[in-house]
Each structure stands twice: as C-alpha cells, then as structure tokens.
Amino acid sequence: MGLLDGKTVLVAGVTMDSSIGFAVAKVAQEEGARVLISNFGRALSITKRIAKRLPEEPPVLDLDVTNQEHLDGLADALRAEGVERLDGVVHSIAYGNPETLLGGKFLDGPWDDVSQAVQVSAYSLKSLAMATRPLLGSGSSIVGLTFDATIAWPAYDWMGVAKAALESTSRYLARDLGPDGIRCNLVSAGPLKTLAAKAIPGFEELDEGWGTRAPLGWDNTDQGPTAKAVCALISDFFPATTGEIVHVDGGYHSLGA
Ligand code: NAP
C-alpha cells in the first residue's frame, strides 16, 4: 500500500535530477502515484533525458507558466495522456534574474525583472491552478515550494519578495478553491543545492551554518525530506489542511537569532 496509490500527480518544474520536482516525482511514484512532469523551452530535452532516471519514465509536458497558450491547452494535453482527474498538482517553479535581482542587488532591482520574477514564481501558482482546474475535484491538492518569506535573508533579495507573493497567493487559492474541496499548501524547504540555488550569487551565505544550527541538522544535498512532505500534503492524510506552510528545514525557522 502506497500513500498515493491510485492518484495522478502533475509535477511542474523538473529540469535535473537535483530538482526538487524530480525528487517529488520519484517519491510519488514509489508511493503508487501515476506521475506526469513538465518543463519548458530549451530545457525540455534535458528533462526528457532526466525523466528516464525515474523508477517509471513519465510523460513530459511542455509548459511555460507565463505562456497563455500553454496554460489554455494544459487540460487537453493532460487528457491526451489519459488523465481525467488530477489528485495532485505540484508547483516547483521559480525564476529571478540572478544578474539584477539577487546577491545584494535589492536596492537596484529593476521593475521589469521584478515583475517577471513575481509572474514566474508567484502568479504562476494561480495560473497553474486555473489551467488544471477542469481536472481538479474534491480531495485534489495543490502544493508549491517556498523559502520562508517572513524575514529578509542575505542574497535572496527580490526572490524573497516573490516568495512572499507566492505565500499570499497560496492562501487566496486556499480560500477560493476550498469550497470545492481543493486544498492549496506550501512546503518551506531549507537550502538545497539545486540548479536554481546555484544560480543565486551568495547562496553560500544563505546556506552557511544551517546544518549546524538546525535542531535536526540539515543536508543540503538531500531533496528527500522535502519531497516526502510534498507527497504527504498531496495524500489523504491532510484532509483538513489548506492555506498552510509546512517547514521542512531541520527546524531552523523555529530558532531566534
Ligand atoms: P530547479 O531545479 O531549477 O527548479 C526550478 C524549475 O522552474 C526549473 O525546472 C525551471 O526550468 C522552472 N521554470 C523556470 N521558469 C519557468 C517557466 N516560465 N515555466 C515553467 N517552468 C519554469 O530548482 P529547485 O531548487 O528544485 O526549485 C524548485 C522550487 O523550490 C522553486 O520554487 C524554488 O524557489 C523552491 N525552493 C528551492 C530551495 C532551494 O534551496 N533549492 C529552497 C526552498 C524552495 P529551467 O531549468 O528550464 O529554467
């Protein structure tokens, strides 16, 4: 018996096998789910290669969350794969221009780049929810990934602002989709050495000391605990939880300075 037996899950945002989305897809398959993954643009061919490393090779969809045509066609693209209902939708997507928005650029970050970061990293949670809405029903669960936006971090700068928008977007989705029995939650992960993290100038500053200070310790190369939490939130074991942020950070967030 797997936690996700009989469930179908879309994981959006898988590029490498270091991607949190990849770990989510792996755990979801191990727990019995049928999984589809997505990425966009030039990286799609990489994703197709990486998909073969999962226990079962999943269909790979082309989905740029800023492309309205992609969003409008997503439900049909899923139906073409034989999907009539989605039990889980995982938003594992973020982008902020590292040249202009991250690594100590907060006071100079230009609006065009900030608006792109907010669209890709926060507004897209709403876009993805609405694009998959025809396939969601009572018991379906949307889960996104955040990096605790309640405080200002070194180097994270405008991505922190985008994450604050994501966290708020999740709460409003929870409010508006809750009456239909659809949940929306986030997992707030500690720093993990993924492609996105490596692109942050000053990621080491964020990461520094996490492993020694976190009460449970923290392995920044292990996406497993984060993936398990995402799968738990998709499962039937959180039937009355929505608008929530579950920290998977070794307990770091619970400490004072
Ligand atoms: P990742 O492997 O780089 O995943 C980010 C994904 O977003 C990539 O697949 C990327 O595709 C995709 N993406 C970017 N723009 C997109 C668009 N317009 N449409 C569709 N997909 C797009 O890095 P990750 O660390 O696993 O990130 C996954 C999520 O976890 C993000 O929300 C991130 O902020 C969050 N998170 C990460 C950490 C950490 O320390 N790594 C901690 C907490 C939360 P391309 O590679 O093709 O650009």
Automatic annotation (TrEMBL):
Entries under SUPFAM superfamilies matching the protein: NAD(P)-binding Rossmann-fold domains
Residues that hold NAD(+) according to the record: 13, 19-20, 64-65, 93, 163
One Pfam family hit: adh_short_C2
EC number: 1.3.1.9
InterPro entries with a match to the protein in the record: Enoyl-ACP_Rdtase_NADH (IPR014358), NAD(P)-bd_dom_sf (IPR036291), SDR_fam (IPR002347)
Pathway in which this enzyme or protein is active: Lipid metabolism
Tagged with keyword Lipid metabolism: yes
Gene Ontology molecular function, alphabetical: enoyl-[acyl-carrier-protein] reductase (NADH) activity
Catalytic activity: a 2,3-saturated acyl-[ACP] + NAD(+) = a (2E)-enoyl-[ACP] + NADH + H(+)
Superkingdom per UniProt: Bacteria
BP terms from Gene Ontology: fatty acid biosynthetic process
Keywords, alphabetical: Fatty acid biosynthesis, Fatty acid metabolism, Lipid biosynthesis, Lipid metabolism, NAD, Oxidoreductase
Family recorded in the similarity comment: Belongs to the short-chain dehydrogenases/reductases (SDR) family. FabI subfamily.
Protein's UniProt name: Enoyl-[acyl-carrier-protein] reductase [NADH]
Gene: fabI
